[in-house]
Every structure is written in structure tokens, then in C-alpha cells.
Amino acid sequence: MFKISLISYLLLLFTFLYVETKLSDELRKIYRFHKQVRKDVQNCKIPGQPPAVKLAKMKWNKLLADKAKQQAKRCQYDSNDPNDFIIGDFESIGQNLGDYPTIERAMKDWLEEHKNYDFKTNTCNGDCKNYKQMVWNTTEAIGCGYEKCGKNYLIVCNYAPGDSEERPYEAKSESECNKSE
Fold it and tell me: pTM score, two decimals?
């Protein structure tokens, strides 16, 4: 009897881990991409953007991810529901949301928004809020979810704390870039 229960438990655990690993591959890519962008902005590797003095270390947050997944499952390209921004004990939530043919394309497009952002004047010439959120200096937690909605994926990433209308980080001198090369 004990052997059957143990085997059933292990089979269930293996099935869960297999599905979770398969699911988390894309989420792991999204998380790593965000971490790399933050590293790049600190190391003078985002063209046209000054390097950041310091960015908070960002960690994956299951609560933010679960909420993002719930929102993505609705397949609605809007975030008008105030409940989407009430997550746990977080005081403020920032959010990137969009529908794209691939998840990789979403990440690339969000990063490419840096071309529309003028750090000196803190203005956007086109979309740049997704980029600003990715490099927001105090963001310590991220959680994302996605869902296939028609031909595209709806991708939602929640960030805590969220952004504001200020500059996303304190810049160090660009002359620091030349010293590290």
C-alpha cells in the first residue's frame, strides 16, 4: 500500500515538474532577458542611454507572475481593471503588456523603445514606457505571464515597485563607459 502511494506521489510530482519545467522555459527566457537589459544599462551597452549608477537586484515573484497569467488568459489588450494592479502587499505595480507574434519579439520591441527615450529631458518620442519599466531603478520583483490569443501571444509583465513619470534611474557619467573598455 505504501509503495503504491509513494509511486503515485512520485508520478504526480514528476508530471507536475515536467509541465512546470516546460512552461517555465519561456518565462525563464523573459526573466533572463530583463536581467540582461538591466546589466547592459549599467555597463554602457544600451546605445543612446547613459549608464545607470545602480539598479536594484530584480527577482522573480510568483504572485506577480500568477496575476500576469490570469490577466493574459482573458486575452484582452487593456489593463483597465484596477484589480490587475492590486497584488499582495506591493504598494505600486508597473506593467508591460502587449500582443506579439512571439515572446522574443515582445522582449525585443520593449528594449528597442530605448531609441524613443531621451534621458536628459525624460521624454518619449513614441513608445518608451515599456523600456523605462524594464530599467526602473527600484524594481525588485518581476512576474510575467502569457497566453496564445488568436495568432499572437498576449504578454503581461508585472513589476514591483512600479514606475512613475520620473527618470528610470540615476545616471553616471558616460566617461565611465570609456574607462571600462
Answer: 0.83
